[in-house]
Write a structure and sequence with these properties.
The structure holds 2 protein chains of 2 kinds. Chain A is 67% helix and 2% strand. By secondary structure, chain A is mainly α. Chain A has 2 domains: 236 residues, MetI-like fold (Orthogonal Bundle); 37 residues, no CATH class. The termini of chain A are far apart. Classes of the chains: A mainly alpha, B alpha/beta. At the A-B interface, helix 7 and helix 8 of A face helix 2, strand 8, helix 3 and helix 5 of B.
């Protein structure tokens, strides 16, 4: 075996890896792509979910077409359609745009838009499922005290829907961070693209792409931690406390997240954030 | 179309409702005086709950009119024609009508005191501190002051229903509707909820209850209505309906449950 530890280390260790401007820029772009696309996705998902649940058939139909297309075709095809296609038929040429000191290439813009619209389709279904999972009686009680449908959604239904939405949403964002790598097909250079360029010079694919993997892992593991925190804060009581299983499977104590002990639900009051209670 | 009798809290005029082909309310005519305590009894599927839910427009009627405090429910008259009210307008009318549900329907993500205060805060735009103070007073009134910070999942059924009553009262309604308030409760908890309801009588509220608690109905009601198959079978004072029912169906029903 001929593993070049020096190359691997050079392109893994951030201070040395980021000396390569492509890699540094690529890492930032990957995060930018993921975060902005996800934000667009959440907004579109919320609108789409409300449209799918609307009484108006036209809205439901529109949302159904949207969801069907963007969940039914590969992202790579959507990227080509929106970036190459829109320019080819004279719809929009995606010129480079400069905001302040940041210059975003047309391909990056198209990547953000496409990934965002794609994510919106998935989140439409996720958010819709979350909303209908909330017991209908909640909406009735909200209306009975004089809330409009919008107020009831905002204060009663959506806060409870979030419990159901968080896990699949978290899963989707995890996927989004990795899907950003697809933009190399439209010529945008993010993290993976940067390592590909380096490989084109050095021809050490194993060492380089292993190092590249570690950066993606850093992002996805960091998100897992954040997701865990979000679920503990906003999630349903099942997601917030740890109870040993009666069938004997799994750990007897939660091994992460609390100060090493199992959390017990108190008789009343808010659930504790960090209480170690020995079972 | 204003009410002919402005002293009426609630009025049903020739109300009909269908669920598909099922005629669930048939030519219902009913008058509820202000500050009356009316209990609606009858077998399951009689249309009692449906009738109650039509009062605050949680259900739509297909024919006839319902008036609450002289105003049409769900519609307004524009030049002789009926125009459906907007969501915001219906919501505003509901502020004057409190409802207590069979399954409590407490907001699961809020503590007891937040459940009671959220209506005043978000709908009435009451300042937060003031709303919480008033909510604490209401919780004390229903005997749950020490449970203010508890979540519905940690409360018993009877406690949840009492919080639900406090939540309805927080909006300062003039009419209170109770849809089988104790039907989902264990027997030992029925008493504590009935005590809270009994406590409300005489406060000036118009109360309409759908209930199977015949003894309680006899005790607190000023008016009793017996319904079956979507029809109002009989109506009168508790002494009349329970003591000397005219209709055979009423007699049969009462002999089975009372």
């Amino acid at each position: 075996m001929d593993f070049r530890w020096d190359i691997f280390w050079k392109y893994l260790w951030p201070p040395s890896a980021f000396q390569n401007p492509l890699i540094e820029r690529g890492f930032v772009l990957t995060i930018l792509l993921a975060v902005t696309a996800e934000t667009i996705g959440v907004l579109l998902g919320l609108l789409g979910a409300l449209a799918l649940l609307s009484k108006r058939r036209a809205l439901r139909g529109l949302a159904t077409v949207y969801v069907t297309y963007f969940r039914g075709t590969p992202v790579i095809v959507q990227l080509a359609l929106i970036y190459f296609g829109a320019a080819a038929i004279g719809l929009y040429g995606f010129p480079s745009k400069t905001i302040g000191f940041i210059t975003l290439s047309g391909a990056i813009q198209a990547g953000i838009i496409t990934l965002g619209i794609n994510e919106g389709a998935y989140l439409t279904e996720i958010i819709r499922a979350g909303i209908i999972s909330v017991d209908a009686g909640q909406m009735e009680a909200a209306r009975a005290i004089g809330m409009t449908n919008n107020a009831a959604m905002r204060w009663i239904v959506l806060p409870q829907a979030i419990r159901v939405i968080l896990p699949p949403f978290g899963n989707n964002f995890n996927g989004m961070m990795k899907s950003t790598s697809l933009v190399i097909t439209i010529g945008a250079l993010e993290l993976f693209g940067a390592y590909q360029e380096v490989n084109g010079v050095l021809f050490d694919p194993f060492e380089l792409f292993l190092a590249c993997s570690v950066y993606y892992l850093a992002l996805t593991i960091a998100w897992s931690w954040v997701q865990g925190r979000l679920e503990r804060r906003f999630g349903s009581p099942d997601q917030r406390i740890f109870k040993p299983r009666s069938d004997g499977f799994g750990p007897r104590r939660r091994v992460t997240g609390t100060a090493g002990g199992a959390e017990m639900v108190p008789a009343e009051g808010r659930l504790p954030r960090r209480h170690g209670v020995a079972p | 179309m204003s009410s002919d009798n402005p002293g009426l809290a609630i009025e049903f005029r020739g109300v009909n409702k269908w669920y598909g082909s099922f005629h669930c309310l048939t030519d219902v005519n009913l008058q509820v005086e202000r500050q009356a305590v009316m209990t609606i009894i009858g077998p399951s599927g009689a249309g009692k709950s449906t009738m109650l839910r039509c009062i605050n427009h949680l259900e739509r009627i297909d024919d006839g009119e319902i008036l609450v405090e002289g105003q049409l429910v769900g519609y307004r008259e524009v030049g002789g024609k009926l125009k459906e009210l907007s969501d915001g307008q219906v919501a505003q009318r509901r502020q004057g009508i409190g409802m207590v549900f069979q399954r409590f329907n407490l907001f699961a993500h809020l503590s007891a005191i937040d459940n009671v205060a959220i209506g005043p805060i978000r709908v009435l735009k009451t300042p937060r501190d003031e709303a919480l103070d008033q909510a604490a007073i209401l919780l004390r009134r229903v005997g749950l002051a020490e449970k203010a910070a508890s979540y519905p999942a940690h409360l018993s059924g009877g406690q949840q229903q009492r919080v639900a009553i406090a939540r309805a009262l927080a909006m300062r309604p003039s009419i209170m509707l109770f849809d089988e308030p104790t039907s989902a409760l264990d027997p030992e908890m029925i008493g504590e909820v009935l005590a809270v309801i009994r406590d409300l009588v005489g406060e000036g509220l118009t109360m309409v209850l759908v209930s199977h608690e015949i003894g309680f109905a006899r005790e607190i009601s000023t008016r009793v209505v017996m319904m079956d198959g979507g029809l109002v079978i009989e109506e009168g004072t508790p002494a009349q309906v329970f003591g000397a029912p005219r209709s055979e169906r009423t007699q049969a029903f009462l002999s089975k449950v009372y």
